[in-house]
Design brief:
Length: 436
């Protein structure tokens, strides 16, 4: 017996790039910001392409992060247009094709402290839509019942996002593994698919899922479309959510599945008209603020970005400035960069640029690499945070009664927890530990 599915993920509807964005430009007049609208267009395009597939698929699986918010970085619910887009696109697709859609909950679009889910309200609005939420998986574990759906040609076992630290701190990891082994096992000789939202990086991809002998595992959370194993793939994010995704192939997967055989996975790649550009510019020892600005202008010209404004092709640009100059200090360089950015993003600008941001890096000895975890993006590489913080304190008029060593310890420890080099929560006991 065989089945065919379309696998999509991490659509992040409602994502709104904020830093260095050209003001007062719209994707839909008075409704959506320009770059926000890109995510809605990709969502619509994907379902249009799936609807046109021949032969058609039996099911569309979305492996988490339908919406961009709420999450730790933004507790607000998704924009109204994000929710309208999800409803209208899914309603139209299911009505036209009669193909069911299943969406699991990821770490985005998730209310951490509320027993409600945006997916439940979406399901009420879209006949033919099935969902699996964090509340569903908690109830399934508590009641020792499976979290699965059966369709005409296949069975699907759902693993919405659940935080590893929550399971560990509550002593639930053994019970969670036992629930998977006893309740999420296949019972029939027909195609079986697992759907999970997690990554090895943050310990939310649970290895026991790979022991269940599913014929295919549809993964979400990693934004790069990639094969995890012979029977498990990440579909990736269909839009460039971060600058370091600019070189990723984006789209969705079509998966042909037969019982006890390796699946045949066919990537379907989207084409983009909006450039997303990353560039490194090395500062020379004798550079001035004016010469740095001229280097930037020359690069923009070489890339064809000095052009009439076109909202469809206006670029997103990130510059990494490496090295340093004895002739320009950090403050003066920052002023020059901000002045140049204002010129680039002004309403009467000669640049066809929708977003322009930069970061700095003092050393050119090692290559710049953006963080791989999609939740954390450091705009500055801090090689020695203790030294940097002490240098910063030296510029301040600090109360003499305060212990600078303790202040430094607090700052460095906070940074370690924020970027994940320490597990758990920061407490007063954390300050007495010497290990990272």
């Amino acid at each position: 017996m065989s089945a065919r599915i379309a696998h999509i993920s991490d659509t992040h509807l409602g994502a709104r790039p904020r830093d260095g964005v050209r003001p007062n430009v719209w994707g839909q007049e008075m409704r959506t910001q320009l770059l926000e609208n890109d995510f809605y267009e990709r969502f619509t395009e994907i379902f249009e392409r799936i609807a046109a597939l021949d032969p058609p698929v039996d099911l569309v699986v979305h492996s988490g992060d339908l919406y961009n918010s709420p999450w730790e970085g933004n507790p607000s619910q998704p924009p109204v247009v994000a929710q309208e887009t999800a409803i209208s696109v899914l309603q139209g697709f299911i009505k036209k094709t009669h193909i069911p859609v299943l969406i699991i909950e990821g770490n985005h679009g998730l209310y951490r402290l509320l027993e409600v889910s945006l997916l439940d309200s979406l399901k009420m609005a879209v006949p033919g839509l099935d969902v699996a939420t964090q509340q569903d998986i908690k109830a399934a574990i508590r009641e020792d019942k499976p979290l699965s759906y059966s369709y005409e040609k296949l069975d699907v076992f759902c693993f919405p996002f659940i935080d590893h630290e929550v399971l560990r701190s509550s002593g639930m990891l053994p019970r969670f593994d036992d629930w998977i082994l006893t309740q999420q096992k296949r019972e029939r000789l027909r195609p079986a698919v697992g759907v999970a939202h997690g990554m090895d990086l943050d310990k939310t991809l649970y290895n026991v899922v790979f022991s269940m002998h599913y014929d295919y595992i549809a993964l979400g959370h990693d934004h790069k479309q990639a094969k995890q194993s012979q029977k498990a793939w990440y579909a990736g994010c269909p839009e460039r959510w971060r600058f370091d995704e600019s070189e990723h192939k984006k789209g969705f997967l079509v998966v042909d599945i037969k019982v006890n055989e390796d699946p045949v996975v066919t990537p379907h790649i989207l084409e983009f008209v909006r450039p997303v550009l990353n560039e490194k510019i090395v500062l020379a020892e004798d550079d001035t603020a004016e010469s740095v600005t001229e280097k930037l202008r020359a690069w923009f010209s070489e890339e064809g970005l000095i052009a009439p404004w076109d909202p469809h092709t206006a670029a997103r640009v990130r510059i990494v400035l490496e090295g340093g100059s004895s002739r320009v200090g950090a403050f003066d360089l920052g002023v020059a960069l901000e002045t140049f950015r204002l010129r680039v993003l002004s309403q009467d600008s000669e640049y066809n640029v929708a977003q322009f941001v930069w970061s700095t890096k003092e050393s050119v000895d090692s290559e710049y690499a953006a963080a791989s975890y999609p939740e954390i993006e450091s705009e500055y590489l801090i090689e020695d945070p203790e030294k940097d913080f002490r240098d910063y304190l030296s510029t301040l008029d600090v109360d003499k009664s305060l212990d600078l060593d303790i202040l430094t310890k607090i700052a460095v420890t906070s940074l370690e927890f924020s970027v994940g080099t320490r597990d758990g929560k920061m407490t007063s006991e954390s300050l007495t530990r010497d290990d990272p």
